[in-house]
Amino acid sequence: MAAKTVFILNDREVRVALPAGTALVDFIRDDQRLTGTHVGCREGDCGACTVLLGTPGAQGLRYRAVASCLFPLADAAGCHVVTIEGLNPDGRSPSGLTPVQQAFVSEGASQCGFCTPGLVVSLTAFLLEDAGLNLDDAVTAIEGNICRCTGYTAIRRAVRRLLHEVGRLPQDPGERLPALIAAGVVPAYFAAIPVRLKELPAAVAGKSVRQPGDAVVMAGGTDLYVQRGPGLAGKELDLMSRREGFAAIWPEAERIFIGAAATVSDLMESRLLAAAFPPLAGFLRQVSATQVRNRATVGGNIVNASPIGDLSVILLALDAAIGLRRDAATRERKLSEFFLGYKKTDLQPGELAAWVSVPLCRDGILFHFEKVARRKRQDIASVNSAIGLEMDGERIAAAHVSAGGVAPVPLYLRAASAFLAGRQVSAETVREFIAVAGSETAPISDVRGAAVYKQALLGRLLFAHFLELFPGKLQAGDLP
Ligand SMILES: Cc1cc2nc3c(=O)[nH]c(=O)nc-3n(C[C@H](O)[C@H](O)[C@H](O)COP(=O)(O)OP(=O)(O)OC[C@H]3O[C@@H](n4cnc5c(N)ncnc54)[C@H](O)[C@@H]3O)c2cc1C
Ligand code: FES
Ligand code: FES
Predict the structure, then answer these.
(1) Separation of 20 CA from ligand 2 center, angstroms?
(2) What is the mean pLDDT of residues 441-461?
(3) Could you tell me which of 82, 86, 75, 80 has the C-alpha nearest to residue 61?
(4) What is the number of domains present in the chain?
(5) Residue 3's pLDDT is what?
(6) Quick count: other Cβ atoms within 10 Å of Cβ 208?
(7) Which residues pair with residue 400 across a beta bridge?
(8) What is the pLDDT of residues 105-162, one digit of tens each?
(9) For residues 151 and 111, what is the distance between their CA atoms, to the nearest angstrom?
(10) What is the mean pLDDT of the segment spanning 67-72?
């Protein structure tokens, strides 16, 4: 008998005895018959299955948009899950629509309507959580929602209209929710959810779903569900989100530690990381789209060992170390030594990735990331690369350079990094550096491009690092 998972679905408490790995969307549609949540791709690509996930934490209840096709039912324990039906249960606005729905209707932003519930949920999450509420950020919030018939111009108009009509919302999270309830964006029952979640029975609100041992280690599930799909339904899960401290980000001994279960969104919102590496959050916007970023973790990105993993490549250039834990013992390895071969790592049976840590440099580092993919958003890279430079005046004191898509592993460019140390930046240095990097890589031809294309692309990305970091020192014509 599967352990019971208890959570609040829309305005009802549910106690579910289905297997832990059941995809949340299947429970919502097949069991609960809430069919406004659609299924387009089952791979996190289309956003049709987007639901709101409200998770209690130190900062109160936080709502995020997630893809319910990649979400294990057990991870809903103790949370508030909201489907499109839960956003407008009583048709309270004069037209019977919420302001988000109304903006879509007014601007003709929906035709067949297949994508519309997902878009409405994503925008509602944006209104609940975003600080600035500007048009660019609102568009970013729906980058993971694909529409095949309306066209994005009308959707963009709907977003603009919505922001205009909702007006300025309070920044303070305590004031934001009442304002959204008053505006009819979310229904009144939302106000009581934090208290109702606290009253859920603790034993079934998450703790009973931990099954270490033979269980499948699952963090965000964004990789696992795509690889193993329905095969996960009957499995016991060891949920990283339920492990104490695994999602924390903290400073210690001249380093920043990032818990393995921290998500891409956690990294983007971390003040600590923003202070140490100001451009990082901007680069992380290139990772997938909102629904996936809200779930995809650092540990999952590293352990799945994809040769084009963006976080792995970024962390290699930040000279990261990884903490590998079995029971109470943790051993540390350089991330550059962790990847052993295609999808092969130094993780031993029974070990978990517990954290990664990156050193802090007193004078800061120059950091840059480049990624080329077939689509600008919601796609993994053909080739990506990152660089971290410690400067001593005009001289490069230390360098860490990495690349993805040019070897069987996320590659630390050891020789190219060593080549840069001690040199001044010049066109000649950069040309030689690119040649050294080329000698360390061996891309293969696949659906993301021919080997010769990837090799040429890497050279361009390495050059772009210097163009961006040293404006005026190099010209496009200096490219080898
Ligand atoms: C639509 C879509 C777009 C994507 N776009 C990108 C992109 O732009 N860039 C990119 O880099 N990736 C992308 N990905 C891939 C994926 O989202 C990332 O690799 C993500 O970081 C994986 O993390 P996760 O927490 O979801 O991993 P999971 O799926 O939970 O786990 C992945 C693997 O790691 C293991 N694991 C997880 N955590 C631990 C741990 N702490 N200790 C030991 N083992 C662990 C699991 O057992 C599993 O084998 C995309 C995926 C999708 C579905
Ligand atoms: S069904 Fe396409 S993202 Fe879930
Ligand atoms: S309205 Fe048809 S897919 Fe968007």
Answers:
(1) 19
(2) 90
(3) 80
(4) 2
(5) 67
(6) 19
(7) 388
(8) 999 999 999 999 999 999 999 999 877 789 999 999 999 999 999 989 999 999 999 9
(9) 9
(10) 97
Q: Where are the alpha helices (DSSP H) in 209-279?
A: 224-228, 264-269, 271-276
Q: CA-CA distance, 173 to 180, in Å (whole number)?
A: 11
Q: What is the CATH number of the domain that holds 151?
A: 3.10.20.30
Residue 77 lies in a domain: yes
> In the chain, how long is the greatest CA-to-CA distance?
69
Residue ending a domain, choose from 167, 198, 229: 198
Could you tell me the distance, in angstroms and rounded to a whole number, from the CA of residue 70 to the centre of ligand 1? 11
* Ligand located closest to 113 CA: 3
* Buried/exposed 315-353: b ≥16 CB within 10 Å, e otherwise: bbbbbbbbbbbeeeeeeeeebbebbeeeeebebeeebbb
Q: Which residues line ligand 2 (CB under 6 A)?
A: 39-42, 44-49, 67, 69
Q: Give the position, in ligand 2's atom list, of the atom nearest the Cα of 49.
A: 4
The DSSP secondary structure of 140-173, one letter per residue, reads HHTTT---SSS-HHHHHHHHHHHHHHH----SSH
Give helix 451-469 / helix 427-440 axis angle, nearest 10°. Answer: 150
What domain range includes position 98?
5-198
Does 168 reside within a domain?
yes
Ligand 3 pocket test, pick from 38, 46, 104, 149 with the greatest ligand atom count within 8 Å of Cβ, gives: 149
Q: Is 302 in the pocket of ligand 1 (CB under 6 A)?
A: no
Whether the full predicted model's pTM is greater than 0.70, yes or no, is yes
- Read off the amino acid at residue 232: L
* pLDDT at 404 exceeding the cut of 90: yes
Please report the atom of ligand 3 found closest to the CA of residue 150. Answer: 1
Say if residue 253 is in the same domain as residue 154.
Answer: no
Dihedral of alpha carbons 295, 301, 307, 309, sign: positive
C-alpha 49 – ligand 2 centre gap (Å):
5
C-beta of 226 in contact with ligand 1 (< 6 A): yes
Measured CA to CA, the distance from residue 69 to residue 81 in angstroms comes to: 13
With 70 as the cut, is the pLDDT of residue 41 above it? yes
Q: What is the DSSP letter of 350?
A: T
SS3 (DSSP) at 314: helix
Ligand closest to 305 (CA) is: 1
Residues 327 and 259 in one domain: yes
Classify each residue of 23-37 as buried b or exposed e, where b means 16 or more C-beta atoms within 10 Å of its C-beta.
bbbbbbbeebebebb
| Closest listed residue to residue 144, CA positions, set 204, 69, 228 | 69
pLDDT, one tens digit per residue, over 326-384 is 999 999 999 999 999 999 999 999 999 999 999 998 787 999 999 988 766 666 778 99
Q: In angstroms, what is the span from residue 109 Cα to ligand 3's centroid?
A: 8
CA of 91 to the centre of ligand 1 (A): 38
